[in-house]
Structures are given as structure tokens and as C-alpha cells.
Design goal:
It contains five helices and eight strands; from the N terminus they run αβαββαβαβββαβ.
Length: about 160
């Protein structure tokens, strides 16, 4: 018999169901906090991990960037796509803005709506995995579903080696 989901993971499962989405949240005993940890636990490539990184815009608004696992976010590209500068978000800002702790921020269900950018590299993949409210909970979806459920804008946000 499967263990019941933690409260935060169940909240995401319920939100998905409320939206008519049949995705199943999976909670692992080991952490999926980093993209490499998540890929190892799931058995997928690191590129298939859709990591959620929260920034703070100069306006004070939360900015959610959902990036492919191996990619580093280019803050200048994000700022250009938004039309305003961004800065790092501390753990308190992440918790207040999303309702979740760093390492488990899902792409939906946040306490405050966030300006959302989705790494264009994710769209080349057939399926991806996103965090589901805790550092060890994830769910599988397609990149197109990610764009639809978040209302995010697809953009080139990855740092490229020169």
C-alpha cells in the first residue's frame, strides 16, 4: 500500500485534480531537491527536470523561471524578457510568495501570482518532471501542459557558453 502524500504534495495533487488534470504526484523517500537528485530518483535525464527558480523583480513582484535541469538561468535574459531587472529571492520571499520552501516550489498553486518564464529548451522534450510542493515530490507532464497550466511565456533564459 502506498504511503499517503505529505500535506504540501497532496495540495498540489488536489490542485491538479481540481483543474481536471490527471497527473499523479509521486513522493520519494530520498530528496529530489536538485535536478541531479530528481533525475536519479525518477530514472530520467537531468534535462527532463523542470526546476522552478524564484527571483524578485525590481517592482517587488515574484518572477518564476522554470528551467531545464542542467541549465543555469541568465538573469540578463530574464530581465530583458520582463522589461525590468531581477534579483535573487531569499528563502523568506520564496515561502511568502509561493507558500512552498526552496527545493519544492511547484509550477502552480502559489500564494501570489508570479510572472512566469519557461526555458525554451524544455519544449524540445516529450515529457518533463516538475516539483510538487516538497523537496521529494514531483509529477510528470508535457512541456505544452506546463505552458498551459502556468500561463508562462516561453523564452531563452539559459546561459550559453561563448
Amino acid at each position: 500500500m502506498a504511503r499517503p502524500l505529505s500535506a504540501a504534495a497532496q495540495r498540489i495533487q488536489d490542485m491538479l485534480a481540481t483543474r481536471g488534470l490527471l497527473h499523479k504526484v509521486v513522493e520519494f523517500e530520498q530528496t529530489t531537491r536538485s535536478a541531479a537528485d530528481a533525475a536519479a530518483a525518477i530514472g530520467c535525464t537531468v534535462a527532463q527536470i523542470a526546476k522552478s527558480i524564484l527571483f524578485k523583480a525590481t517592482s517587488g513582484a515574484p518572477v518564476l523561471v522554470i528551467a531545464s535541469g542542467p541549465n543555469r538561468v541568465d538573469e540578463a535574459k530574464v530581465a530583458a524578457a520582463l522589461g525590468q531587472a531581477i534579483g535573487k529571492a531569499d528563502a523568506d520571499f520564496v515561502r511568502a510568495s509561493t507558500g512552498f520552501a526552496i527545493g519544492g516550489v511547484p509550477p502552480l498553486g502559489h500564494a501570489q501570482p508570479a510572472l512566469t518564464l519557461i526555458d525554451s529548451d524544455l519544449l524540445a522534450l516529450p515529457t518533463i518532471w516538475a516539483a510538487a510542493g516538497t523537496p521529494n515530490a514531483v509529477f510528470q507532464l508535457t512541456p505544452e501542459e506546463l505552458v498551459s497550466m502556468t500561463g508562462g511565456k516561453v523564452a531563452d533564459v539559459a546561459q550559453r557558453k561563448r
